[in-house]
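Q: Given only this backbone (766 positions), what sequence would you predict?
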């Protein structure tokens, strides 16, 4: 990725102090006391307004909607005032704000408040109409920059060499830390990823999280960092210094460094579609930067944005390269699942990778901020919300929920599956909502977690019953939760199961059900994560762990295709790690129900991890003979004996109930047995689980085997060394029921014979 910089033909006569985009127009203000409108080509479109004093900053009222663009911006001035100016240049209001110059001002993310900071060291909060709400902070040095938190409940501002995060609530505690060795000149807090970038006179820029923890710091650069700004989607940021612009990844490393003869860069403004930026210089000049050379990869296909309206598709295996030209500027491109999707400022083009000559094209009402593909559908996010489309360009659904904010929807907060999608609720980050892709309706109750969820991902292998969701929470713990039940129409979703801690990133394999994660400096791959819902005892036996201390801090998994995991380190280096090819082969055999060949593969490889995967897969598919062989191979004697006992059960319902019990679902097992009329087997199951109250309740309700439950309870009490019954229910029924051991055993034998002689009863088929 690189930044293609072109100077604007228009030039102010003096220092340009601020700039901001509205649609495709750039507004600039300068010490020549004028506000000008500039086209994306750098041509002057006329003077908007003359000012009475020198402006120091400019910020547009937040609005990403193409149809309802902002019509108001605010300008900070050197005489201690700030102005509310309409788009046509008319000054709507002038507010006396500070003693000395107002150095920085910013609208809140919702546009309900304005924060100002000045030479007097005071930070103030104003209403949208310019009425003072309150003074937030007073410090002993000039405040050069401020920025709002993602929820607009805190403000981050500079204070000498320190950065301060001050909550708007008076009783809340502020956070303050020494950020640089020189004066901090600029801070910017991104509303999507929650990260803060700062730059100072120590010639460094640094990336912090919302708690003041350092995520990245640059080496000392040539000059002081005078400007820094996040792209709206939080994937990139730009920093400016004397005659230089740098384009950086969200983790801090530099994509490109461009020389711009404009003096110190005083301000940087990104367009709403994140494809271009504008820089303002101390010598009055402006530059425009286009983000090019964006690359997307899928298996053997590489897609490169070569120019603003040109995309190159390269098939590495087929040695094919084709150029695609577009009428408008390319904003987004995404490749996967046999398709290439390119969105421009006005249209969306959907190509089949088998035939790039005949795309499906449809017009867009809004600029698309994010695209995610799946096997059946694609998800597009714009300033209005989410839309699900088919690969023919047909709109399928538009999932919505109360409190949804489109600007927070990105690759971490939205996950698209084949038939459903999961979204983190921004209003309550502990909640993950699951929607049906075909209708947009919410499926069942949402997934609830104990902490805020920061990242979510859905697997795409198998049917709806195999759908699983992985969550990473604020503590960096990794959880997995089935959403197959929700996708199949059931209301209840089991609570998430914790797979591990200190997780930096997690990604599902695109070809099968494997899950890769970076945890505590190690690359961990679960060959069969569904084992969590089959037999949790095997979780550690189906995972592969590889030391990855060379990945450094904050690594990111780009993709997990086939047997290769591609990881990007915090310095931008891409590393590829290989995993065993045998689990992939095992998935293929199991999908074809070739169990005998799967056993032969495991015998050939002689790997305990592969045998454990086969055992869990066989249990999930109720293939008991294969499970028997697999458990014997890994010396799980107790589980082997249990499999043999299940095979001896004469009825299918009885075997299914025991398997449900193995998966720790006693309620499901009880329902299966009661629906099949196997009352005694259901009572016996609860006795084996020591659920005495439920066993007695069933026996009384069905008027059978009450004496059996009482006899078993007596034996249990004797074995526990207890002489007196403490349960009042058992005391009550013990008084009126005679216990005859011989009769009870005969009755149990009759029940077993009766079950074996049922019409559908037959031994387990090998």
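A: Predicted residues:
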């Amino acid at each position: 990725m690189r930044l293609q910089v072109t100077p604007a033909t228009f030039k102010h006569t003096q220092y340009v102090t601020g700039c901001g985009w509205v649609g495709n127009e750039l507004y600039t203000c300068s010490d020549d006391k004028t506000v000008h409108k500039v086209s994306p080509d750098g041509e002057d479109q006329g003077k908007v307004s003359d000012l009475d004093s020198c402006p120091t900053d400019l910020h547009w009222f937040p609005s990403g909607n193409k149809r309802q663009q902002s019509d108001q911006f605010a300008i900070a001035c050197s005489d201690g005032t700030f102005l509310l100016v309409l788009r046509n240049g008319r000054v709507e209001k002038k507010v006396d704000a500070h003693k000395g110059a107002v150095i920085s001002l910013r609208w809140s993310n919702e546009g309900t408040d304005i924060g100002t900071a000045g030479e007097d060291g005071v930070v103030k909060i104003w209403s949208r109409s310019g009425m003072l709400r309150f003074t937030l902070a007073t410090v002993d040095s000039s405040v050069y920059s401020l920025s709002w938190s993602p929820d607009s409940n805190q403000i981050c501002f500079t204070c000498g060499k320190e950065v301060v995060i001050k909550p708007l609530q008076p009783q809340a505690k502020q956070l303050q830390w020494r950020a640089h060795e020189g004066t901090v000149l600029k801070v910017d807090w991104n509303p999507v990823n929650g990260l803060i970038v700062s730059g100072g006179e120590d010639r460094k820029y640094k990336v912090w999280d919302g708690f003041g923890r350092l995520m990245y710091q640059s080496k000392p650069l040539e000059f002081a960092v005078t400007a820094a700004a996040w792209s709206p989607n939080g994937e990139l940021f730009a920093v400016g210094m004397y005659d230089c612009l740098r384009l950086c990844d969200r983790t801090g490393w530099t994509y490109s460094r461009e020389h711009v003869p404009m003096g110190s860069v005083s301000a940087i403004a990104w367009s709403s579609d994140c494809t271009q930026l504008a820089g303002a210089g101390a010598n009055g000049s402006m530059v425009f930067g286009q983000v090019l050379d964006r690359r997307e990869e899928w298996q053997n296909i590489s897609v490169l944005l070569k120019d603003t309206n040109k995309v190159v598709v390269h098939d590495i295996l087929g040695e094919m390269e084709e150029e695609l030209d577009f009428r408008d500027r390319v904003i987004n491109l995404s490749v996967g699942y046999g398709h290439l999707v390119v969105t421009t400022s006005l249209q969306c083009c959907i190509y089949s990778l088998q035939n790039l000559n005949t795309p499906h094209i449809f017009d867009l009402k809004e600029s698309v901020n994010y695209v995610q593909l799946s096997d059946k559908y694609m998800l597009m996010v714009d300033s209005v919300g989410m839309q699900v489309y088919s690969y023919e360009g047909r709109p399928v659904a538009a999932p919505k929920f109360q409190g949804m904010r489109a600007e927070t929807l990105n690759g971490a907060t939205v996950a698209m599956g084949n038939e459903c999608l999961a979204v983190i609720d921004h209003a309550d980050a502990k909640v993950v909502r699951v929607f049906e892709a075909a209708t947009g309706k919410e499926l069942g109750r949402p997934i609830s977690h104990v902490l805020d969820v920061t990242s979510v991902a859905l697997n795409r292998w198998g049917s709806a019953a195999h759908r699983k969701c992985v969550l990473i929470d604020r503590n960096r713990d990794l959880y997995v939760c089935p959403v197959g039940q929700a996708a199949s129409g059931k209301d209840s979703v089991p609570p998430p199961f914790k797979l591990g801690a200190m997780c930096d990133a997690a990604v599902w394999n695109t070809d099968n059900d494997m899950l890769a994660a970076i945890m505590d400096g190690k690359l961990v791959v679960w060959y069969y994560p569904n084992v969590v819902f089959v037999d949790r005892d095997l979780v550690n036996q189906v995972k592969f762990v590889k030391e990855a201390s060379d990945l450094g801090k904050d690594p990111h998994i780009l993709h997990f295709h086939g047997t290769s995991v591609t990881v990007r380190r915090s310095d931008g280096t891409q590393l590829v790690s290989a995993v065993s090819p045998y689990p992939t082969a095992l998935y293929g055999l199991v999908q074809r129900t070739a169990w005998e060949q799967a056993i032969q593969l495991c015998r050939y490889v002689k790997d305990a991890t592969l045998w454990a995967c086969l055992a869990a897969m066989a249990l999930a598919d109720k293939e008991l003979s294969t499970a028997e062989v697999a458990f014997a191979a890994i010396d799980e004697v107790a589980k082997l004996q249990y499999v043999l006992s299940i095979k001896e059960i004469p009825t299918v319902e009885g075997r299914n109930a025991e398997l449900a019990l193995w998966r720790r679902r006693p309620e499901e097992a009880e329902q299966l047995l009661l629906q099949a009329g196997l009352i005694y087997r259901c009572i016996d199951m609860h006795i084996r689980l020591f659920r005495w109250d439920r066993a007695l309740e069933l026996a009384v309700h069905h008027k059978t085997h009450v004496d059996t439950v009482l006899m078993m309870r007596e034996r249990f009490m004797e074995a526990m060394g207890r002489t007196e019954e403490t349960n009042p229910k058992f005391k009550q029924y013990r008084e009126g029921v005679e216990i005859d051991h011989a009769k009870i055993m005969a009755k149990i034998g009759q029940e077993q014979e009766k079950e074996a002689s049922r019409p559908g009863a037959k031994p387990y088929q090998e």
